[in-house]
Amino acid sequence: MSTIEDARAPGEGARRRPPEPLVPEGERRVSANVCQAAGCLSMQSDLVLGALRDRVEAAGLSDVAVRRVGCLGLCAAGPLVEVPELGRLFDHVQPDDGAALDSLVTTLSGGEPGGQAMAKEPFFSHQVKVVLERCGQVDPERVEDYLDAGGYEALTKTVTTMSPEEVIAEVVRSGLRGRGGAGYPTGLKWTTVAKATSHDGKFVVCNADEGDPGAFMDRSVLESCPQQVLEGMAIAGYAVGAQHGYVYVRAEYPLAVKRLNSAIRQAERSGFLGKQIAGTDFEFHVEVRIGAGAFVCGEETALLASIQGGRGTPRPRPPYPAASGLWGRPTLINNVETYANVPPVVMRGGEWYGSIGTGKSKGTKVFALAGAVVNTGLIEVPMGLSLRQIVFDIGGGLVGGKKFKAVQTGGPSGGCLPEELLDMPIDYESLAQAGSHMGSGGMIVMDESTCMVDVAKYFMDFCREESCGKCLPCRAGTVQMYGLLDKITRGRGTRHDLDTLQSLAEMVRTTSLCGLGQGAPNPVFSTLRYFRDEYLAHIDDHTCPAGACRLDGGER
Amino acid sequence: MVATPARTLSPPSDDKRWRQVEVRMRRLGHRPDGLIEVLHTVQELFGFLDDSALAFVSQSLSVPPSKVYGVATFYSHFMLKPQGEHTCVVCTGTACYINGAGALLAKLKERLGLEAGGTTADGKLSLLQARCLGACSMAPAVVVDGEVHGRVTPSSIAVLVEAL
Amino acid sequence: MSDEVRTLVIDGRDVAGASGQSILSVAEESGVFIPALCHLAGLSEVGSCRLCMVEVEGTARLVASCVTAVEEGMKVTTTSERLLAYRRRAIELLFMERNHVCSVCVADNHCELQELAKTLGVTHFELPPLHPACDVDATHERFVLDHNRCILCARCVRVCDEIEGAHTWDIRGRGTGARLISDLGKPWGESTTCTSCGKCVQVCPTGALYEKGRSVAEGKRHRPYVPFLVATNALGTGRQL
What we know:
The structure holds three protein chains of three kinds. Chain A has four domains: about 30-120, Glutaredoxin (3-Layer(aba) Sandwich), CATH 3.40.30; about 145-355, 3-Layer(aba) Sandwich (Rossmann fold); about 365-445, Roll (Ubiquitin-like (UB roll)); about 450-540, Up-down Bundle (de novo design (two linked rop proteins)). Chain A has a five-stranded mixed β-sheet with strand order 2-1-3-4-5, with helices on one face. In chain A, strands 11-10-14-12-13 form a five-stranded mixed β-sheet. By secondary structure, chain A is α/β, with parallel strands linked by helices. Chain A has 22 helices and 14 strands. Chain A has helices at about 40, 45-60, 100-110, 120-125, 145-150, 155-160, 165-175, 185-195, 215-225, 225-240, 255-270, 300-305, 335-350, 350-355, 385-395, 430-435, 450-465, 470-490, 495-510, 515-520, 520-530, 530-540; strands at about 30-35, 65-70, 80-85, 90, 115, 205-210, 245-250, 285-290, 330-335, 365-370, 375-380, 405-410, 415-420, 440-445. Chain C folds into two domains: about 5-80, Ubiquitin-like (UB roll); about 85-230, 2-Layer Sandwich (Alpha-Beta Plaits). In chain C, the strands form three sheets. Chain C has a five-stranded mixed β-sheet with strand order 2-1-5-3-4, covered by helices on one side. A three-stranded antiparallel β-sheet of chain C has the order 6-7-10. A two-stranded antiparallel ribbon of chain C has the order 8-9.
């Protein structure tokens, strides 16, 4: 291969064409919702859709729909098919599993219903769905489905009956806080941007650069109901006085990008994006910007730099984006889940929303449950539920009945919470007090076979590679902390190394420029706080209690 | 000598794909802030970015060459070397990590005789690792030619790679 | 920037600055020394070396004084046990990050990093050196770039972009793998944008950029060669090395 022209894009044409859903010509009596989000797709749910479609057609069931829907939540049991009219769920449906497909066709044709009754499953019955209300219920690639489910009613209500001040007042009343991690009051942010004066426009930006490893809430929402996010952005645009919006999505989410682009085109065609929205003078345009693989771009000033085509390095704040953001203009930045909360808040009122959750943490939170837990998947629960309820009731406990060790929340800047905190309510304040934070909502359950020093090392490795390299403490400090942790996991560390690690961690947290660097030492702090004995076992006894580390100790 | 912005600049060759790159640049108004979008387009069409492509983009968008290079090397998605005909991306996100992604990667490295980021000598396969693909519920996950495979084991990955 | 006056207290001294002026700049004008490496009067601020962080009464966090504007009634502390510990650690991180050997360095005794280490009383290092493999680029006819001594302060990047208007320099990669680059990452001597003005060499705080023909300890800077920097530093209190 000598020149660029000789090369071809890798993997070209390797992807198969997805089968189309089956829409009955007349009234539909019953439907089979086949999950087509990334989790189930990775287990060939597209082939399941095709196989089921063939069988339904062959059986001549003319009043049955075979639908393409987004995430049904229980990813662990994929591929999933739901028959919502009968409340039945079929799990582990394989495209070549004749018995399962037969049972589905029998159920759909009015015979003995197969699968499981969803109402009896704690995984579903303990959840409260606001953001995910339509996920798994609508076809993410058909705006008509979204409209049938009441979509864009909130935007229409907003632009035809409410003033921008009224919209903001409703958001303030809801008590909604930013779902990207920091938990800044959304209403307050909107107020600041609305008040900022600008002669040449403002911007609304949706942060969909979900970079925390172990987090897939935003991906699922964009793959399952992208219209709800766009609707939230348009309402925000109306409220703060912006006509242009950007969604910044990670390149690692090709399906989300595809569905988002198609959703934008369809919303424009239906008159909910573009000019004269719902017949009024309000206009709002949305463009997608694709990230290129840099975790730091989830930080708002780095994200803005990236949208403007530059290296995604954060800059000192102030000025905050609300005053000076994209191209120096006032810019509202919220994440996917925050925007997806907006239509329900507008439709049902801030008071209703505020009635869910706890004192300072209102509403619901979407979590991505992963790791050593039985029911991995996407869940939405009211704020204030305990970790125990999430891990053991909804999550179904640990795989293979192993012993619970910790749950990691908040990604690389979060922390590991031990067993004694299982009864802690999940809200912004409790998590911060426990030395972790909400983060975007990734929750990784760890069992006794996971070494906590190794976990701290894993996250430090992540941070040193994802550090943008601009500010010194993060650039060089994370590398040095990684070195110390590596030394300890090899059984070569000393007590003095532990002290050095702690003082270095303190310095990096206090002096780094942005949240990535300031948060990078958190996994070290939280594991030192709750699992110090594991560090000492590596140092003093040259053993890894979890049996995960390969110790080559000896010479010290 | 300072590079002058030249909108009439001709592409590195008469390969038709450059026309698509030019169309993309025109749609973005040849604005410097469209840099990342244009780099995405070049990489989608050619599979990677080389010096001639970077120089062409630099001059067409009036962005200093060092800035173009700085951006292209900042983001891990951009490739400055040709990739294999097929790609195999191993996710090393937290859930995948604690579910054995390390063993998967080790198996592939050994089998292919490659480090992550490398390409086999025959140009057939590139081995990459990703920070999190968001397929955590299916951990460990591997993406082969854009298709996600969940709950992969060292033996099933061998079968997948062998089939290429 | 309006010309309204802001009065504040720095280390117990009453001082005054203009609204919008940074704490660091007011401190410099008032003869209060705050260590800094990425800051250079006359260039835009990036706030990346974090050495200039100070305590502000009523704020739990430390603030970078180069990018924090003075406010009426502010009470600033520029030196404390904690700040000193952080600054020493920062210097240590810099020394350990690349291959700094003062005794064979052209900038020995004319080096801002070395000077700061002395001023802050850095006597020993706890952390291990990272010993990265670094190139020396001597392809330019008059100047040399030695990555072993680069601290990524980006003064050269800024002076080339903001003053010379050439934007020959930028940074490639990220994290600790970040490197200073010219044009498309090619040798400096092949650069088509470099005007050979030498401003980057004059602003370099260490021996990373130097003139050819200099031997150990001869790398004295000639800041008057970059007159704009002196001109904007009205009181001439910037540290000239």
